[in-house]
Structure formats: C-alpha cells, structure tokens
Design goal:
Strand content: 5-15%
Largest sheet: 7 strands, parallel
Order of helices and strands: EHEHEHEHEHEHHHE
Number of strands: 7
CATH class: Alpha Beta
CATH topology: Rossmann fold
Length: 256
C-alpha cells in the first residue's frame, strides 16, 4: 500500500554532528535528538561536551561526546571509531564545522588561507570519508554538509570562505553521484546570516544589520533552528529521494 503520510522523525537513528556545542551545530544536535535520534556530538571542549550530553539525555535520548579537531585528522578518525564502537553505526553525518577569517582578497594571509581550506575542505572531506566507509559497508546513510549562501553569492571580504563553500557544494554533488549506488544520500544546506555567538557582534552594528536585511526579501536574520529544521528534514525518511541538492536557507538572498 502506498504511504501517504510522510515521516519526519528520526526514531532509531544515530546522528553525528560536528562542532555541536554552539550555534548551528548545537541547534542541529538538539533538533535531531528532539526528533528521536541518539546523538554523537563532536566537540573541542570536554566541559561543553558534558553539558550538551546531559541536555540530550534529559530529552530521553542516548548521547556520546567525542573529541574532534578537524585540523588533526587523527582525532577525527578516533572519534568516528569510538562512535561506531558505542552505537554500532552512524546513520546520519552532519558536517557543521566551518570557519572563515574575514579579509579583502589582497590582504589574505597564507596562514588564514591554509586554515580555511584545512577546516572547511580537508577536514570536511576526511570526516565524510571516515563515516562514509561505514555507511558503504551498511549500504545506507545520509550526509548533510552545512554550506553557506557564500557558495552561491559573492560576499566582499570573504573570497576564501566563498571559495571553500562553493567547493563544498560541488563536493556534495560529486559524492551524491558516487555513493548513490551504496544507498547514501548526500546533500548540503546553505544558510544566510544566522544569529549565533560568532555573527552577533557584526550584526549588532546598525549599518551592517541594515545592509544584510536589504539583501533578504523575507526581511529577517535567520535563527539556528531555521537551519536545524532543514537538516532534520534531509535526515528523515521524508527526504529519501533527495540527493545532490543544495538547499538555500537564505530568505531569498540568492534570488533577489
């Protein structure tokens, strides 16, 4: 019988979110847990990890904090192995970690270039590879890359960040094509400016805030839950035929 009620829950799933202690990553971790998933949270700080694990466990879900530093691939591989040992599988990977030192292109330093590429591209790829190998063995999985509108539109002073996110968008398509045969769906989510600890100082500037709003037809800065809701959808059974997509959560910036 054809099922006419889409399923948006994540009951019985194990989800790994990188950079899970704050901002978009934290929202994604809590939203996935709230939708029924057991959680593996990639963290840099043991103290932050404990607090997040306690919060998720308070929601009635299992949770494990694993140390992950995307500039140190040994920690990535160790974290994925630990998660696999504890839960026996990883059903969904949310690649949330990303950064972008701001500077005009003529002033970009080699150190900032290397850091951006090491975290946003190299770190994301090898995290995906480590989890992807486990998914290939099970012939199923979902990978969701947190990209940015910066991969589609131009942002002054963000040339290297924009470059890295455009690369993530294309990596998403390449992996979607390569791993579909293994039952793995790979998608990306591309937010506009979101209220987080990292963006709040800039958005507190009235002129900058007005400038940003001038590009967003829906007329507001995003909240972390706006991104997390899209992640939960892409991780859920309701999105089972979606792969290779880049979902813009940008309030219309890219089409204005």
């Amino acid at each position: 019988m054809t099922e006419f009620t889409p399923k948006f829950d994540l009951n019985g799933k194990v989800v790994l979110v990188t950079g899970a202690t704050r901002g978009i990553g934290r929202a994604c971790a809590l939203a996935c847990a709230g939708s029924g998933a057991d959680m593996v949270v990639g963290v840099r700080s043991a103290a932050d990890g404990k607090a997040l694990v306690a919060e998720i466990e308070g929601m009635g879900r299992k949770a494990l904090a694993v140390h992950m530093d995307l500039t140190d691939l040994a920690t990535v591989r160790s974290a994925v192995a630990e998660a696999h040992t504890v839960f026996g599988r990883i059903d969904v990977l949310v690649n949330n970690v990303g950064l972008g030192p701001e500077n005009l292109a003529e002033n970009v330093t080699e150190a900032d270039f290397d850091l951006t590429v090491d975290v946003n591209l190299k770190g994301t790829f090898f995290t995906t590879q480590a989890v992807g190998r486990l998914m290939i063995a099970r012939k199923c999985g979902r990978i969701i890359n947190i990209s940015s509108q910066a991969g589609t539109v131009t942002l002054k002073g963000e040339a290297i960040y924009c470059m890295s996110k455009a690369a993530i968008n294309h990596l998403t398509r390449c992996l979607a094509a390569e791993w579909a045969q293994h039952g793995i769906a790979v998608n990306s989510v591309a937010p506009t400016f979101i209220w987080t600890d990292g963006t709040r100082p800039s958005l507190a500037d009235k002129d900058f805030h007005s400038h940003v709003l001038g590009h967003i037809p829906l007329g507001r800065i995003g909240d972390p839950i706006d991104v997390a809701g899209t992640v939960v959808f892409l991780a859920s059974p309701a999105a089972s035929l979606i792969t290779g997509a880049n979902v813009l959560v940008d309030g219309g910036w890219s089409v204005a």
